[in-house]
Amino acid sequence: MTSADAYVRFSGVQKSYDGVTLVVKDLNLDIAPGEFLTMLGPSGSGKTTCLMMLAGFETATHGEIVLDGQPINNVPPHKRNIGMVFQNYALFPHMTVEENLAFPLEVRGMDKADVSRRVRDALNMVQLRQFGARRPAQLSGGQQQRVALARALVFEPKLVLMDEPLGALDKQLREAMQYEIKHLHERLGVTVVYVTHDQSEALTMSNRIAVFNDGVVQQLATPEELYERPSNAFVAQFIGENNRIVGKVREENGQHCDVELPSGELVRALKVNVAGVGTPTLLSLRPERVTVAAEPGSLPNVFEARVQELIYHGDHIRTRVRVCGHDDFIIKVPNRTGHVHLAPGETTMVGWHVEDCRALDAA
């Protein structure tokens, strides 16, 4: 995608609230028409500030924001034609569901017949047609969130912004709503910019994810690429679970490197983001990529491990072992017929492929 193809473009955007500290640092980001892009990161990373600048509730200190080819830095929020969904729903409690949905249409001066049709279509879209006469207090949390979503879509915007919209829901309902929003996006083809700190939510819903930390996009990629190929230590530890082992680069060999651990073991890893021979590095290894009861020589990396703890998780056994001098090394052993049965105190051999062990920046 070129900048000319982008529906939303942040170009050199910076934001400071006090004139000194930048909460967003030189953001350059293109979002394609119809894309579901998630801004993911911890609290204070700058993701919500970026969303608020796009919505028009905050002003960029420097740089330009472009929407559908038009600069919008000086365009007020109500003229940007953007739908918004918030965590607290922001529904009018004194209005019925239908009145809540009709409000953004009425302020745009639409005639009554068109308003009625759009409200009816929006309620059908979120499967709440029979709840139109109720007030928000008479609905469950999930139903209120559907109403908020319908209100954001009722005037048919081409861009919808969502700021932690599922944060107030319980786990089961939250997961169900993730799929509902994802499927709704696929049907409508609307461009969505979604903000969350929940990496599982981002992986489930997004076409691409921008991982923020300290006001900077650390990596912009598809969910699969972020999980399988994190480009630095922050992304590796923020996206999913991984074992982190600190060592020193002893030798480089093409795409691979040998890393010496403080315990004396030598690990062969994929060279991703290292500063050279003799420099510290952090090895990143996903728990599900570790093989238990590995035969010596069957994998490039095989080490003796002592089982510390077993926790039953239904579909897998979370196994904590001591290996290579680390007491908190986690392995996810699939719970299936024929899986290796271990007990605390036992020793076993564990191993992994070179490509599953990524040598990253020591930070």
Description:
The mean pLDDT is 93. The protein is of the alpha+beta class. Helix 2 crosses helix 3, helix 2 packs parallel to helix 4 and helix 3 crosses helix 4. The strands form four sheets. A six-stranded mixed beta sheet has the order 6-7-8-3-9-10, with helices on both faces. The protein is globular and about 75 Å long. It starts with 7 loop residues before the first strand and ends with a strand.
Topology:
Blueprint: E1 8-16, E2 22-31, E3 36-40, H1 47-55, E4 62-67, E5 70-71, E6 82-86, H2 97-106, H3 112-125, H4 141-153, E7 159-163, H5 171-188, E8 191-196, H6 199-205, E9 208-213, E10 216-221, H7 223-228, H8 233-238, E11 243-253, E12 256-260, E13 266-271, E14 280-285, E15 291-292, E16 301-312, E17 316-323, E18 326-334, E19 347-352, E20 357-360
Parallel strand pairs: 3-8, 3-9, 6-7, 7-8, 13-20
Antiparallel strand pairs: 1-2, 1-4, 4-5, 9-10, 11-12, 11-14, 12-13, 14-20, 15-19, 16-17, 16-19, 17-18
For the structure shown, list the relevant keywords.
363 residues, alpha+beta, 6-stranded mixed beta sheet, 5-stranded mixed β-barrel
Question: What is the H/E order?
Answer: EEEHEEEHHHEHEHEEHHEEEEEEEEEE
Count of helical stretches: 8
Which strand order does the major sheet show? 6-7-8-3-9-10
How far apart the termini lie comes to 31 Å
Radius of gyration: 25 Å
Low-pLDDT runs of 5+ residues are none
Provide a quick synopsis of the model.
The protein is of the alpha+beta class and 363 residues long. 23% of the residues lie in helices and 36% in strands. It has eight helices and 20 strands.
